[in-house]
Design a protein that fits this description.
164 residues; homodimer; 4 helices; binds threonine; alpha+beta; 6-stranded antiparallel beta sheet
Chain lengths: 164, 164
Amino acid sequence: EDIVVRGAIIKANLATIVLTGVPNHPGVAATIFAEVSKHNILVDDIIQNFYDSGRMANVGFSTDHAQLGEAVEVCSRLSAEGGFGPVEVDDEVCKVSVVGIGMRTHTGVAAKLFNALAKARVNIHSISTSEIVISCIVRRDESHRALRAIHDAFELDEPPENEQ
Amino acid sequence: EDIVVRGAIIKANLATIVLTGVPNHPGVAATIFAEVSKHNILVDDIIQNFYDSGRMANVGFSTDHAQLGEAVEVCSRLSAEGGFGPVEVDDEVCKVSVVGIGMRTHTGVAAKLFNALAKARVNIHSISTSEIVISCIVRRDESHRALRAIHDAFELDEPPENEQ
Ligand SMILES: C[C@@H](O)[C@H](N)C(=O)O
Ligand SMILES: C[C@@H](O)[C@H](N)C(=O)O
């Protein structure tokens, strides 16, 4: 019985910033992250989507909650200089992630994760994925409920059969 | 000398869809991906950001280019039923990724990647990251230039010192 989702992890004390209304042409991401890096602001994950027929982008990243103040200053300045839209802030959040293998070919895994969180009335603020991880940013005060829901949905509290 | 970026990979024949103007409350991601999964639409990466003071979200995912037509149909229906905004489409794209270790603590890596792409005049449509991967969605006809720029910037064509 191949187990697809192997575990769940939580990363606490995060905050997310989204630079909205970013002109979608070469050089902008470079400018943003050179500036963020210059201020020694930790970057956990970066999430960017495009919209407005590809003319615009929303560039989001999560950082350490302790650095939110400085990150907002840096991003507000970038937004003013670059003519971006509003800087969105997501204070006091955590990242809950499921870790597994072959999660893409098992197309139901993401849906199952989101359904587990929905049933627990946990709102998903941001989503980021890779080959082996599906990560959701949620409110800090909903994160334990989220982790519980994930453990139940994917039966993560039971030892694998070959360990019994 | 610790080498942070170990390699670059390209995944071709992708297309991206972004559902914009998605109400940011529990249950919506579950509805979207249950429907996508029901139609056997392959999901490569999922990228979601929030905006409008947290009231709205843009939910993006990449799929196989061959499935774009069906994915657009499914998403258009979801958008109509859910009262979402426009469905954005990114046709004929590739995902270029750098693979490495400790890329988060080395805050300059993302900036260096984006700078390399900017210098090559490659536009970055979407960004998604994890602990060990930074992925950028770019136009198919810019993907080889992107990969070349990444190889040059991170000196990936040279064998590691301990292999000489
Ligand atoms: C928005 C930003 O990523 C831009 N498209 C760039 O290439 O830098
Ligand atoms: C937008 C979507 O992710 C929503 N926030 C949900 O939790 O389902």
